[in-house]
Design goal:
By secondary structure, the protein is an alpha/beta fold. It has eleven helices and 14 strands. The protein has helices spanning 3-19, 72-81, 99-104, 107-111, 132-142, 147-157, 165-173, 211-219, 286-314, 321-326, 334-341; strands at 29-30, 33-38, 44-51, 62-69, 87-88, 94-98, 124-128, 180-186, 192-201, 204-209, 227-235, 238-257, 263-276, 346-358. A hairpin with a 5-residue loop joins β8 and β9 (192-201). It is globular.
């Protein structure tokens, strides 16, 4: 490539860059969180929360705007009309739904807002209680935008299954699986608190798993992460509690057999660290380690079976088991599977726990 060609290409790249519209942060209202509710008259209500970078870093920094209308497009336009600067959606961190709205169905938002090219697919989505409006009012009062960070932290350090808009949409549009998202409320100090996982059927919120059940959903998540769990223990007249931390988990779905009464096997190898245990347990003794491993095996098998039963009874499939049967049956029909076969499904559960380290008693 000669020098003249290089000069021409350099000038062209400079011209292209110059054509891009410059956006100055201080001249934009960059929405951090959008919340959606439904009104008694059937209209939508949007609550937007964004920082005002022209103000000092204080409670007054956070701005909240509420609008109502029949469509999401009108809601965004009316929010923009209330702001002194243009509304910018490309840096939105979270979209939340009031509990009642989520139960009625969020399909309209999925088809419009979620498919807006300005919205990134790595943002967090969640169901909140009692409503998105009241929830975000409390967030503003606290003066801290931590919804997305709190969800990410719970995934990285706890048992919350990985969830963002991309994963939600994949489960929503995919065959043989149902979407889910974290369920948030305010803690005792009005801080953001993850209080379980909301399971959806199509676009409607159907079932809430509490944090203990979420631990087992996390164990079966395809993404690897850790979590803590308390287990009761009894040996003769001695009773106590010990705490495990899962370090690695490898779930495998095997021997998948479609049909009127579908069957499959779950094989779960889980590696745990013992974080706390009673004084009458000696982790230098192999017999006590084996004793704990048997207790872990019984508890995990019982609770995972309970989780699968809850999903079957409510017709929700966050584990994507229908998709696994679909891969083994060319005549698989989604509607027939969940109407006739899913509740009859049999899952043979095999758990293999391994204690890899004993922590310090606390």
């Amino acid at each position: 490539m000669n020098r003249k060609t290089l000069v021409v290409l350099s000038l062209l790249s400079m011209l292209i860059a110059a054509c891009e519209r410059t956006k100055i942060v201080d001249q934009l209202s960059i929405v951090n969180t959008i919340g959606f509710d439904t009104q008694e008259d059937g209209q939508l209500r949007a609550t937007s929360l964004y920082p005002d970078y022209t103000k000092s870093k204080s409670q007054e920094n956070l701005q909240i705007r509420k609008t109502r209308g029949n469509t999401s497009t009108v809601l965004i336009q009316r929010t923009n009309a209330q702001s002194k600067n243009p509304i910018e959606l490309s840096k939105t961190q979270a979209i939340v739904f009031g509990e009642d709205f989520a139960k009625k169905g969020i399909g309209h938002i999925v088809d419009t807002v979620f498919n807006n090219p300005m919205i990134a697919t790595d943002i967090q989505v969640a169901v909140v209680t009692p409503s998105a409006s009241k929830y975000l009012e409390t967030v503003k009062k606290n003066g801290s935008l931590t919804i997305a960070d709190t969800i990410n932290q719970n995934y990285n350090t706890s048992s919350l299954p990985r969830s963002n808009l991309h994963i939600f949409l994949n489960n929503y549009y995919g065959h043989g699986r149902d979407p889910y998202m974290p369920f948030l409320k305010h803690g005792s100090e009005s801080n953001v608190y993850v209080d379980g996982v909301a399971l959806f059927k199509d676009d409607q919120y159907k079932v809430l798993l509490d944090n203990k059940q979420v631990f087992f959903l996390g164990l079966l998540d395809e993404y690897k992460h850790s979590g803590y769990y308390e287990l009761p223990i009894k040996k003769g007249s001695k009773k106590g509690t010990f705490v495990i931390r899962t370090m690695k988990n490898k779930p495998e779905w095997l021997n998948i057999n479609p049909g009127p009464e579908p069957k499959l096997d779950l094989s779960l190898n889980v590696f745990v660290v013992i974080r706390e245990y009673p004084d009458w347990i000696n982790l230098h003794e192999q017999k006590d380690i084996t004793f704990l491993e048997k207790a872990i095996k019984r508890k995990l098998k019982t609770e995972i079976a309970k989780l699968i039963r809850i999903c079957k009874e409510n017709g929700v499939d966050p584990l994507g088991l229908g998709d696994r049967f679909r891969a083994h049956d060319r005549n698989w029909d989604e509607q027939e599977f969940y109407k006739e076969q899913y509740k009859k499904m049999q899952v043979n559960i095999k758990i293999e726990p391994t204690v890899i380290q004993a922590g310090i008693k606390r």
